[in-house]
Input
Amino acid sequence: MDKDAVDSIYGSGPVCVQPSITSTSGGGTVPAGSMANLSVSATGSATLSYQWYSGAATSTANPVGTNSPTYQTPPINSTSNFWVRRLEWLRRRRPGATITVTPATCVPPTVNTQPANQTISSGGTAGLSVGNNGTFPFTYQWYQGSAGDTSNPISGANQLTFTTPALTQTTSYWVQVANSCGNGEQHDRPRSLSRAAPAPIPRSPSSRSR
Output
């Protein structure tokens, strides 16, 4: 039975549209150390599957991701290329689309607003804060002791603000600010020292006359 005879009985059916990628998103510049969400949009009448790769277009040495039109990259610290190949239900391979992701230049943090020394009432608390420049995101760790002494980190004190416990003697605190660029030594450089000094308790007139 030839095609014309089949068409006369069953009709020619819908026109088959070859698949093609119509758009991509997620490329460009992202913060250093962050992940990028990549996606492609495709049209066509066939059932499609997808395979993502890391590397130059047409190189299949580094398959990544799953059978999805979207892919979340690992943290980006250098310019990286990703491309996706479409597979039709007949397993015919179609050319892919390449997406390039570039990390923004990372600037190490510098402290521009120091936590201020404070005098508080004995048994009171002090609210400390730090201001800094550099490339977001940042991490913070407050310590008790002299600047640079990391032997006494304060558990849970990892924000740009910190409220001391109740103090009855002069106590020193400092904060370490870090971001994704540089090495550990550079991370240690942005430091800020603050002292919370309780005011002396005045003696009563009777105690001073003795």
User: Anything to note?
Assistant: The chain has three helices and 16 strands. The CA atoms of residues 54 and 82 lie 5 Å apart.
